[in-house]
Design goal:
Helices cover about 55% and strands about 15% of the residues. The chain has about 575 residues and is of the alpha+beta class. Strand 1 and strand 2 form a beta hairpin. Strands 6-7-8-12-11-10-9 form a 7-stranded antiparallel sheet, sandwiched between helices. A 4-stranded antiparallel sheet has the order 2-1-3-4. The protein has 4 domains: about 55 residues, no CATH class; about 210 residues, Rhomboid-like (Rhomboid-like fold, Up-down Bundle); about 130 residues, 3-Layer(aba) Sandwich (Protein Transport Mog1p, Chain A), CATH 3.40.1000; about 130 residues, Tetratricopeptide repeat domain (Serine Threonine Protein Phosphatase 5, Tetratricopeptide repeat), CATH 1.25.40.10. Helix 5 runs antiparallel to helix 9 and helix 10 crosses helix 11.
Length: about 575
């Protein structure tokens, strides 16, 4: 079948297939007169009056193809390449290089703790070396130029920086302690957008342009991802984030060639821009809520710490974990004392140490309880090395154990570090001492032995459980009534408990073991705890008369200022 076209005095006969191609290519305008015998008979009519022409003609597709075939100036592409090249050249200046590394590369602590949200954009313009720069620019320039002709400048800017932001966020989320820089996240986003655009507009693409879009670029994306996975030092999460960001943005963005599509694309651009602004604001708003925490430490006091922080000296002068920014630190301590300690005895050394390291300005104290352990929460404001700090401390004391958790930050960073501080304290947990758990297991495994029960009594006394300790010692005493170590432990528990029963027990012990220095000394200490110095001295004199020269008794007498001369 033939279609005859008439332009002025000139006529042209085309096959129907050729006519279809020319209409789709925009070479047959709506005002051209044509004759197609099965439809128009012998008459020539305007092309726009025929349904078959209107079904083939696509003004948007025609304009899209014309834009692709035109070689307009790639202003955005040139600007992207020029800025990256200029920044790389400026990095040869050590001062600028240090500034870039300190404030403009993608790095979790600087982003979430320092609030430097511009890092999510600036890292995509910086490069490590010439090879890194040239490789990324090859992909950026090739894909950006084609996309700029197809989609326009605003869309290309959104695609590039949107991919840089999405890639940077995924990178710091998955590997928060790693720094990265380079345009590869943006390059992967442009490759993904080129693939998606080819899928959306494959029928509109001229044949020679199809090598730059759609399936033609899938091998490049796949090989680049695989190559990155197999290489060390490559930020693959950034690549993946840029790829996903480019794909998602290209599902809503489009060429703005017709009024209807121009309005839709303008709305899409506003939506994408708003989402990107939200992603940029997210680290600033969430701040240290996004700082990842480790699993709680093992042991009696289990407290997590930020995984991006390194071990070292904290801002209080203790060993712990300190932020890479140097603005905050966290530390814990567990102490086992020879004798039970009060809460005040646990707090006093901490405040004294802060006073030695600087100047304590104010202390606010409030009682707390954690996992059954009584304690205090202290808010301490102090000056160290002419810098103001705020320290939050939780101190606990039970039996012979004292525990503490500290979180210190610069005073001006209160707003940034408050969420992280509360997350750490909320996750803190106090377990039963391992030695106590082991003693309980030993008692269950050896029900007829006095030794596990005596050890259980000692461990319960150390944790401040005097009733439980006395019960364990009395059970041991029922099995081995003549074992001095059991009497010594029971005397220590009764000494802490006080009362007439304690005095009676001391008298019984001294009568039962008049020649055992350990029992004698425990009885003497109990008398002294009850305030009966006379009975204590008399017991030591009687023991010294029976065991003259005993080293344990000699030291005990010397500590109390008693004579150690031997009689005739």
């Amino acid at each position: 079948m033939w279609v005859e076209l008439r332009r002025g005095e000139h006529s042209q006969r085309l096959t129907y297939e050729d006519f279809e191609q020319r209409v789709k290519a925009g070479e047959v305008g709506p005002d051209v007169l044509l004759r197609f015998a099965p439809v128009t008979g012998e008459s020539f009519v305007p092309a726009s009056s025929l349904a078959l022409y209107r079904s083939l003609a696509d003004p948007g597709g025609i304009a899209f193809r014309k834009r692709l075939n035109s070689a307009g100036l790639p202003v955005v592409t040139a600007a992207l390449a020029g800025v990256q090249l200029r920044l790389y050249l400026s990095s040869f200046d050590p001062q600028w290089e240090a500034r870039y590394n300190e404030h403009f590369i993608n790095w979790g602590p600087g982003l979430f703790e320092g609030g430097e949200i511009w890092r999510l954009v600036t890292y995509g313009l910086l490069h490590m070396n010439a090879g890194h720069l040239l490789l990324n620019l090859c992909f950026v320039v090739y894909t950006s130029w084609n996309l700029e002709r197809a989609l326009g400048r605003v869309n290309v800017l959104l695609l590039y920086f949107g991919a840089v932001i999405s890639g940077g966020l995924l990178s710091v989320w998955m590997v928060p302690d790693r720094s990265s820089l380079g345009a590869s996240g943006g390059a992967f986003g442009l490759i993904a957008a080129s693939i998606a655009l080819g899928w959306k507009r494959w029928d509109d693409l001229p044949l020679r342009a199809r090598k730059s879009f759609g399936w033609a670029l899938v091998p490049y994306a796949a090989l680049s991802l695989i190559s990155g996975i197999q290489s060390e030092g490559v930020d693959n999460w950034c690549h993946l984030g840029g790829l996903l960001g480019g794909l998602l943005m290209m599902t809503v963005l489009d060429a703005d060639l017709q009024p209807a599509r121009r309005r839709a694309n303008a709305l899409a651009q506003v939506g994408v821009g708003a989402v990107l602004m939200g992603l940029l604001a997210l680290p600033a708003l969430a701040g240290t809520r996004f700082v990842p925490l480790s699993a709680p430490s093992e042991g009696l006091l289990q407290v997590p710490h930020p995984t991006t922080w390194g071990t070292g000296w904290t801002l209080s002068g203790d060993r712990g974990f300190r932020s890479p920014l140097g603005a905050a630190s966290v530390a814990t301590s567990v102490s086992e004392l020879p004798q039970p300690a009060s809460l005040e005895e646990a707090v006093a050394p901490l405040l004294a140490r802060l006073g030695e390291a600087g100047t304590v300005e104010s202390v606010e104290r409030a009682p707390i309880t954690r996992d059954g352990w009584p304690g205090e929460r202290l808010l301490v404001r102090f000056i160290r090395e002419e810098r103001p700090f705020v320290g939050t401390f939780e101190v606990f004391a039970r039996g012979a154990y004292t525990l503490s958790i500290q979180f210190i930050h610069e005073a001006e960073a209160e707003g940034r570090y408050a969420p992280l501080r509360e997350r750490i304290f909320a996750a803190a947990h106090i377990e039963e001492p391992a030695a106590l758990v082991a003693a309980e297991a030993a008692v269950a495994a050896n029900p007829r032995s006095f030794q596990p029960r005596a050890e259980l009594g000692r461990q319960r006394r150390l944790t401040g459980d005097l009733p439980g300790a006395i019960a364990a010692y009395e059970e041991a005493l029922a099995i081995a009534p003549d074992e001095p170590s059991v009497w010594v432990g029971l005397l220590a528990c009764r000494m802490a408990e006080g009362g007439p029963e304690a005095r009676a027990l001391a008298t019984r012990a001294l009568e039962r073991f008049p020649d055992d220095p350990s029992v004698i000394l425990a009885g003497v200490e109990l008398y002294e705890a009850l305030g009966d110095a006379t009975a204590a001295t008399a017991a030591l004199d009687q023991a010294w008369a029976r065991l003259p020269g005993d080293r344990v008794l000699r030291r005990a007498r010397l500590r109390r200022g008693l004579s150690v001369e031997l009689g005739p």
